[in-house]
Write a structure and sequence with these properties.
- By secondary structure, the protein is an all-alpha fold.
- Helix content is about 55%, strand content about 0%.
- The chain is built from 17 helices and no strands.
- α8 crosses α9 and α13 crosses α16.
- The longest helix is centred in the N-terminal third of the chain and has 26 residues.
- The protein is globular.
- It starts with a helix and ends in a 7-residue tail after the last helix.
Length: about 400
């Protein structure tokens, strides 16, 4: 497994854990819960909504219970840990996959409003979003579009043009600026038109933004020039968030929009209603298999089954990384860890850490530093004791692989 594919899977695990924390936090705030309770997802970030074209509550995902959501995420994770690019089977799977970033966006905005999903870390959701983008993006998108954000001079704008077309595009750029000025001010350009160098920076920036945005060569802009301009202007001119302390809702919206490109989300689930809302069976049979989800729901009705299974997979993968194999999961789930019924996220995390430590010690499976450091040092340091107890209990045990 390449380092990039490992990082992508680790970040998927982080997003799912964040979503589970959101569900747990919301359910803890309710006085009574029906078995089919569904936590309301409402994304209000205008940048995210304007750039992603999916509603604030994510259709199909909003139609099912939290327990079903957890079960679907479990299936998605099992697939993504084996094959990152395979199509998901139903609209509910794609909607639940998409919802991971929508939930992250909502929680980031809540943190900006001083409402925290992780009480020991006020920047938890923001750190996941920002670090995921930094690790998965190998382009200037990790900082933003320089032609949208930097207060460019004309010469700096020209430096961004693709090297192999620079001369030709410089001429086009100057013509575009002059024509825009003429249209904006109905100027006849006979005697008193200012030189381009005299245009106010803010006005020139808006013209440049339009020029770059309407081009078909944006993906080929001069990366070396981008790096030099980012060094010159510094992080405050990044279009996206430049640190976890960034306050702007718009910048964080762009961070999640950029991250969406690297997670690989499919929004085709918005094209039709699912079979949960058909009026008669004849309409149901007309639906493509992709939009038939009723027959799947029975598999995900027992929280005491779906939550421990998902959390165990998440924790184990984060700890072993490239040494993960799906066949290990059945052995892990058989390791005795608690006589109590496990139904809360925190309890499941403790049991999963213990079982993982036990199994890894018994089978001599080494740790993967990337996920392990995040899980036990940054996110949930209280799990370290469970993990170490499991290692001590498993070190003299032999489990055949």
């Amino acid at each position: 497994m390449s380092e990039y594919l490992l990082l992508k899977r680790v970040n998927i695990c982080k997003l799912i854990l964040l979503a589970l924390m959101w569900i747990q936090s919301d359910e803890d705030s309710q006085s009574q819960l029906a078995p089919d309770y569904s936590s309301p997802l409402q994304v209000e970030n205008l940048t995210w909504l304007g750039e992603t074209y999916v509603g604030e509550d994510v259709e199909h995902f909003c139609d099912v219970s939290n327990t079903v959501r957890i079960g679907v995420w479990g299936e998605i994770l099992e697939q993504k840990l084996v094959d990152l690019i395979a199509d998901l089977p139903t609209c509910l799977h794609d909607a639940s996959w998409y919802a991971l970033l929508a939930i992250t966006m909502m929680l980031v905005d809540k943190e900006l409003d001083r409402v925290y999903v992780h009480q020991q870390d006020e920047c938890f959701a923001r750190a996941i979003a920002l670090e995921s983008l930094a690790e998965l993006s190998d382009s200037y998108l990790a900082k933003g579009h320089p032609y949208l954000d930097f207060p460019l001079s004309l010469e700096e704008a020209k430096s961004l043009l693709p090297v192999d077309r620079k001369q030709e595009l410089e001429v086009e750029l100057e013509k575009f600026i002059i024509n825009t000025y003429k249209d904006d001010f109905e100027h006849d350009f006979e005697d008193d038109a200012p030189h381009i160098s005299q245009f106010p920076r803010d006005y020139l920036k808006e013209i440049l933004k339009d020029f770059f945005a309407n081009s078909d060569w944006r993906g080929d802009i001069n990366q070396e020039a981008v790096a030099q301009l980012q060094e010159k202007y510094g992080p405050k001119y990044s279009q996206a968030a430049y640190s976890v302390q960034t306050e702007g809702y718009e910048r964080w919206g762009y961070t999640l929009v950029f991250l969406k490109q690297f997670i690989g989300l499919d929004s085709s689930f918005i094209e039709s209603k699912s079979d949960l809302f058909v009026e008669d069976e004849s309409q149901e049979t007309d639906l493509p298999e992709y939009f038939r989800i009723k027959s799947h729901l029975a598999r995900w009705q027992d929280r005491k089954v779906v939550l421990p299974q998902l959390v165990q997979t998440l924790v184990y993968f984060l700890l072993v990384g490239e040494n993960y194999h799906p066949s290990h999961m059945s052995d892990l789930m058989r390791i005795p860890a608690s006589s109590r019924v496990i139904s809360s996220l925190q309890a499941c995390l403790g049991v999963a850490a213990y079982r993982s430590g036990y199994y890894m010690a018994a089978t001599k499976i080494p740790e993967s530093e990337v996920g392990r450091n995040w899980l036990l040092d940054k996110a949930f340091p209280n799990l370290r004791d469970f993990y170490q107890c499991g290692q001590l209990a498993g070190k003299d045990i032999k489990i055949g692989l």
